């Protein structure tokens, strides 16, 4: 379960795939030894090393706050480490590889004095004026502010070949990977707004999109559901769940089980987009900061302020809607500015 350690779930976390990168080939540099002692009171600790975390580091470092960014031991870099070509991050007209983009983020943050630690945060106490952060490597740090940028994990179906076929037909992100399925027959799993949105979006590329849902009515809002139901390229397969994935080395089809009568059938598809919800990684802080009804960290208005003074949150851990690298980066910037203002006042 995701309650182990957000940063230890490398293999459990299947991200925006495209031709997804398998295995641990992180180009992120090993962190240098920390310049500052563990025992000093820092201005800022950032937890998480996706676009939100690194952007918060770039801004707080340039503000002279010498942030410590705790990047996790095995999955430093976040979701973009699992993608290949990133074509929609502004400023890179030719596109670039997700891991290269993250290495650039790190280099830019370190250029201005960010200290990076490849370790897992296992416990925090954020309630006092001095925030305490403990790592799996046995270190304890103290800071006046903490920026939480721990991201969210796409929910999986839990099928045997799901990880193996991630990036080879199985995807969690239509915005990222839809482009690879021009004129193909594909399927989307789920009955919520995300599934509707993904299915509609994918009809721009695919010739045919099956929408597979385990019940006989959608959970999605009426307007989103109607849009999918009225789309001539979408065919809904009700009362069905995917039980097996087939194809070597790429997905070629799935086995469906009817949830009413238990009968099974085969469906030929070259793509399967899984949109059954996602889980923000909040286990570290869920007993300390307020969460939204959807279990994201609650922030005040357009700010990054959580319900605890001096604690800010950014990126996918606060965002049920947009979930893009660029929106996460922007959110990291907001958190850095909010932390800076807080430090000016305290
Ligand atoms: P969600 O609302 O939790 O819906 C998840 C869907 O996946 C449900 O239909 C659920 O089935 C199904 N599901 C869950 N686990 C499954 C499994 N193991 N196998 C098969 N099906 C499974 O998640 P979401 O669609 O990602 O939306 C999350 C939030 O973001 C919602 O509040 C949504 O309104 C919001 N959102 C809004 C927009 C928009 O307005 N533009 C777009 C995207 C998301 P059951 O129905 O049977 O439970």
Q: In terms of topology, how is this protein built?
A:
Elements: E1 41-47, H1 51-62, E2 68-70, E3 85-86, E4 96-97, H2 98-111, E5 115-117, E6 121-125, E7 131-135, E8 140-148, E9 152-154, E10 170-171, H3 174-177, E11 185-189, H4 193-202, E12 208-212, H5 222-229, E13 234-237, E14 240-246, E15 253-258, E16 264-268, E17 271-274, E18 278-280, E19 311-313, H6 325-345
Parallel strand pairs: 1-2, 1-8, 2-5, 8-19, 10-17, 11-12, 11-17, 12-13
Antiparallel strand pairs: 3-4, 6-7, 7-8, 9-18, 14-15, 15-16
Helix pairs in contact: 1-2, 1-6, 4-5
Bound molecules: NADP nicotinamide-adenine-dinucleotide phosphate (NAP).
What does this structure look like?
The protein has 346 residues and is an alpha/beta fold. The protein contains six helices and 19 strands. Strands 1, 2, 5, 6, 7, 8 and 19 form a seven-stranded mixed beta sheet that branches. Helix 5 links the parallel strand 12 (208-212) and strand 13 (234-237). The protein is elongated. The two termini are 38 Å apart. The relative contact order is 0.18. Bound molecules: NADP nicotinamide-adenine-dinucleotide phosphate (NAP).
What does this entry show, briefly?
20% of the residues lie in helices and 24% in strands. The protein is an alpha/beta fold and 346 residues long.
Spell the H/E element sequence: EHEEEHEEEEEEHEHEHEEEEEEEH
What small molecules are bound in this structure?
Answer: NADP nicotinamide-adenine-dinucleotide phosphate
Number of strands: 19
Class from helix and strand fractions: alpha/beta
**Spatial extent as radius of gyration:** 21 Å
With helices defined by DSSP (H or I, 4 residues minimum), what is the helix count?
A: 6
- End-to-end span in angstroms? 38 Å
Beta percentage is 15-25%
The stretches of 5 or more residues where confidence is low (pLDDT under 50) are 1-26
Characterize the biggest β-sheet.
7 strands, mixed
What best-fitting shape do the alpha-carbon axes yield? Answer: elongated
Mean pLDDT, to the nearest integer, reads 89
Fraction of helical residues: 10-25%
